[in-house]
Amino acid sequence: MRFTNKTEVRIIPSIYIVLVAVFVTNIFVNIEIMASSDTEQEISFSHFIPNIVTLLLGLYVHRIGQTFDFDSDGETLNFKNNGVFLSKFMEYRIKRAEFPKRKLGKFKFIDFGIYSALTIYINSRRKKGYRKYTFNTTFLTQKKKRGMVDSLNKVLATVPKPTA
Length: 164
What we know:
Layout: E1 2-4, H1 12-35, H2 49-64, E2 66-71, E3 76-83, E4 95-100, E5 104-111, E6 116-123, E7 130-136, H3 142-158
Antiparallel strand pairs: 1-2, 2-3, 3-4, 5-6, 6-7
Helix pairs in contact: 1-2
């Protein structure tokens, strides 16, 4: 099974632009309030609340705005996260894991609605225990999430476990 969420994350650059526009607009509104001489209105904390909320939303969108590629065809499992905003020009914020199916130890999938992630644990010869990788899967559709979980469960069921 092979899929990606590139069509779902196309909206992320637009969200970035809107958040920047809201942030800059609120800064100019605060400057205008400070510069107005006919009203003796002071800048209070409530004037900065929209900027704080916009910054928090911007950080959240930056955190979850990643493409996710999954490929379980063949003898290997491939997982890849990449940033969205500059992905046409360069790869940044890239996280990749490619390994044989027999090395998949276990996986855990969490879905909170506004954030979802896949954590995979890979058997390693060099290190005792498992290597842990976490991939952001927030913008996958529910159908793709179910297909990925089913595919990983199938891999775990068919791969023989190593003896201790």
